[in-house]
Amino acid sequence: MRKRLLWIGDGPDCPSGFGRATREILNVLRETYDIVVLGINHLGDPGTVLYPVYTCSPGGDHYRSEERRVGKECRSRW
Predict the structure, then answer these.
(1) Torsions phi, psi of 74, nearest 5?
(2) Which has the closest alpha carbon to 56: 17, 4, 18?
(3) Residues 6 or more apart in contact with residue 33 via CB below 8 angstroms
(4) Cα dihedral 49, 56, 20, 24 in deg (nearest 10)
(5) CA-CA distance, 18 to 29, in Å (whole number)?
(6) Residue 62: is its pLDDT beyond 70?
(7) What residues have CB less than 8 Å from 1, skipping those under 6 apart?
(8) Of residues 75 and 61, which shows the higher confidence score?
(9) pLDDT at 40
């Protein structure tokens, strides 16, 4: 069983230097880990990467709906 990795940072499709760093680093790490990303500045659009990316609003989700959805997804996968 592969180790799991939760990455929190700019989404890999975000047009920023941090987004590019996320994409490049995780392209290497995905060989070893099962990756899930909480992507800051990720708008929920279908991405170009081979791992799930969930929206993570830096201002917070006042209704915590994203947190509940991600929690369910992580529990069902692992």
Answers:
(1) -65, -40
(2) 18
(3) 2, 3, 4, 5
(4) -50
(5) 16
(6) no
(7) none
(8) 75
(9) 85
